[in-house]
Amino acid sequence: MIKRKAAVLAIAGIVYFAGMASAHHPSGGVGLGQTGPIRTTPATTLSGGMFSFAVQAEYISLDSFSDSDLLGFSGRGKDAHTADSVFHAIMGIGYGITNNLTISINIPYEQVNNIREAHSDEPDEIHQHGDAKGFGDMTIMAHYRFMKTDDKLEAAVLGGLKIPTGKTNDRDIHGETFEAEFLPGSGAWSPIFGIAATKKIGRVSLDTNVQYTIRNGGTQVTNLGDLFNYNAAISYRAVDGDFAWDLILEANGEWKEKQKTRGTWDGNSGGHMIFISPGTRLVMGKKVSAFLSIGIPVLQDLNGIQDDTNLKSLFGISFSF
Q1: Which residues contact 316 (CB under 8 A, 6 or more apart)?
Q2: Nearest 5 degrees, angle CA 282-CA 284-CA 288?
Q3: Please, are residues 70 and 117 in contact by the beta-carbon 8 Å criterion?
Q4: How far apart are CA 29 and CA 21, in angstroms?
Q5: Coil, strand, or helix at residue 219?
Q6: CA atoms within 13 A on the CB side of 59
Q7: In a 3-state reduction of DSSP, which class is residue 240?
Q8: Cβ within 8 Å of residue 271, ≥6 positions away
Q9: Among 238, 230, 250, 156, CA closest to 204
Q10: What string of H, E and C letters represents the secondary structure of 64-101?
Q11: Given 84, 140, 277, 302, which residue has the most CB atoms within 10 angstroms?
């Protein structure tokens, strides 16, 4: 039994993993429970017959390039683009089919603000595109808890599918369709799988998960690149009872493969980022919670010319019934 527990924790707690999403697509959080972490997926499932509904808003501030920066890149024979910020609104609903199996659906709305580009074949011109916005791809997930011990150690496997329901024909201020990486929808069917572990010690919850998304070719003959993410969290219930208050600290890692269009790799895409994310959750009546997470970048190792992330903020409300 000891070896089994150690193996589960080792698999779920690997130190080096990869990304959940690029800056242009939502990372968000789980948000369906009334306890535990915000961005990290716990092994804990909903009770059988229970519904949970969550609404989240995520704002990502980007360290965008100035027009002079873009002209400098194009003057040196390089193509580059930039955006000011990204906004996501994410609606999720979950249902406990049994005490050990939860099914959930997430539907995002996405907006990338003030997209601009410069091209090496037009070194003196900045192309203004405006904002790309619309509903993104729907994700269906299954969360199966295969282990729960008397000493409050849990483990679960995750599996799902991102379905190409998002908008792939959004047009810029000139009436041209945005490039695939800016569009809310990918046009691709993308399977997802992962594993999660939870250990509860009194008022403390330790959670970790890893998740991999296989991206297939989609709109504009573009593969946006596989995603690999890893998360770890410690949560402390500072106040318990009908009104509860959690303090949360998470480490969230994201890696994204370079994207490929018509068989050609884009050198200005993909990379690895790590965020430290302090957060908090207020729970009212054990049925309603509000949560806030702030993602602070501590590592940004991006390929080529890309915007760094200044900050990621996530706010949400969830209801269980």
Answers
A1: 29, 31, 38, 54, 55, 56, 57, 90, 290, 291
A2: 90
A3: yes
A4: 12
A5: helix
A6: 5
A7: coil
A8: 255, 256, 300, 301, 302, 303, 306
A9: 238
A10: CCCHHHHHHHHHCCCCEEECCEEEEEEEEEEEEEECCE
A11: 277
Give the three-state DSSP class for 263. coil
Cβ atoms 57, 315 nearer than 8 A = yes
Strands 80-82 and 288-302: what pairing? Answer: unpaired
Other beta carbons within 10 Å of 23: 23
3-class DSSP assignment, residue 182:
helix
CA distance 22 to 227: 8
Cα–Cα distance between 141 and 156 in angstroms, integer? 13
> Are the C-beta atoms of 225 and 260 separated by less than 8 Å?
yes
Which amino acid, residue 104? S
Please tell me the predicted confidence (pLDDT) of residue 286: 84
User: Which H helix or E strand runs over 253?
Assistant: strand 243-256
Give the number of C-alpha atoms closer than 13 A to the C-alpha of residue 294, restricted to the C-beta side: 6
104-161 residue pLDDT tens = 999 999 999 999 999 999 988 999 999 999 999 999 999 999 999 999 999 999 999 9
Which long-range contacts (C-beta less than 8 Å, at least 24 apart) are formed by 234-238? Answer: 234/204, 234/205, 234/206, 234/207, 235/35, 235/36, 235/37, 235/204, 235/205, 235/207, 235/281, 236/203, 236/204, 237/35, 237/203, 237/204, 237/205, 238/203
∠ CA(129), CA(267), CA(183), 5° rounding? 35
Structure tokens at 142: 């299954």
User: Averaged over 219-247, what is the pLDDT?
Assistant: 96
d(CA 157, CA 35): 19
Q: Which two tokens stand for residue 79?
A: 């193509």
Domains plus CATH for the chain?
A: 2-320 (2.40.160.40)
In this structure, the strands spanning 85-98 and 122-135 are unpaired
